[in-house]
Amino acid sequence: MINKLLILIFILSISNVMGQLQVNNVSEIQTSLENLIISELFGCNVEISNIEYTGNIEAIGSFNYTSNSMCSGEFGLERGMIMTNGMIDYAVGPNNNGDDGEEWNIEYEDSFFHNYLVDHEVITPSVGLFDACVLEFDISSASSFSTQFEVIFGSEEYTEWMSPFYADAFAFFVTEIDTDLDPYFDSIPINIMETGNILNASLYECDIENKPISAWTIRPYSDVLNIPGLNECLYIDNENGVYCDAIGYDGYTIPMLFNLSLEPSANYHIKMVIIDGVADYWAGLDSGIFISNTNLQEDTNINLLSPLFEYDIFGDTIIFNQVNSLNPNINYEWDFDEDGIVDSNDINPTYIYESPGVYNVNLEYADACTGFTSSISYEIIINTISSLSYMATPSVSIFPNPARDNIYVSLKDLNTASLIKIFDFSGRILYQDITHNPFHIIDINSILPGMYNISIENTVNAIQYVEKLIIF
User: What are the Cα distances from residue 153, in Å, to 50, 64, 85, 327?
Assistant: First the structure.
């Protein structure tokens, strides 16, 4: 079971001259697959266990795609997991060989999957399954969980080798195990990634026939076999190297969108499998499946960080305000004075400067789930330093600060009358009261969010206490 996992994400040096696909092999199967499932498929809000892998270590890994505006189009996915029935390296362009592939020549015995493909007319009954890449694991969630995947299937079988006699195929099977809580899934595996389940199908102008994903069921017109296309609007030809020639396959699909929802406390088994169908011999032409979790992309996209924060400056004080929701797994490290020392780990920190000047505020953040890191800098100008003398005394404490609804003033060992004021930086008094109690509650709902001062005066005990107060 995986509760929390910090991983190292590959830092890639990618050219800006052209769109580029880069793939990364897993290095050590068990650990790397755990990392891969969390960082690219499901994140940290589920529990994963009982991971099993069947296939060559060179057949599975992660991918990154960098786009370029000068290209004729876009691949559609930025990063995710790739599985192939050969080697993931063959997915990388340029596409200068029409018949790339790796022949592992290892038969895969799976009667359920074989019968499933035969029943859906992907392969003929005489076809065997070879060179499988299979990733299996159990998954559960303590709360309702729903996520979406974008999937691209690419193949060297396009276009001259499209046939039910040696069709490469992919499936994403989901089964409910040990529980009976989900009305949709049961003990019989369901492939959630058939063409009839595509959520974005309405964007494409053709009638989509429900089939498993394969080079035979998503295909253009075949000049070799003189047969019409099937689900042809999902297909993109790449024989001449579309999109800056970044992809090595002869053809691939558009990004197909699928959904997976899990019931709270239900237990599931997931089996992702891509195979090479072979009727006679030569299981050698590669196909690959690219899978990207759109929810994880939204949570961890480092380019979205900059507009997520706004800040206000009140004299010598800077306050950061998060205006959008971020992934709760993100850790923050703020350096307000460029000394290389972390000054705050808060999401919305406040910092008081000791002198005027121009400062670079540096923020580094890391997603503790996926391992993604990034940084951003803000240049700020502090023009003035507050003339108020902010005094600290062990007899007075004010909390919480920052505050939203109420603040609590503790006047320890003060048994005489104390005057409490809240005032803005112009000196305008917004709250004033005299208390004889050592503990005082102030309702601040009538005060607008912002930066204020709060003071406590006690003449008998010679106390004049002033503190900055943040209301949000």
Answer: 27, 15, 12, 29
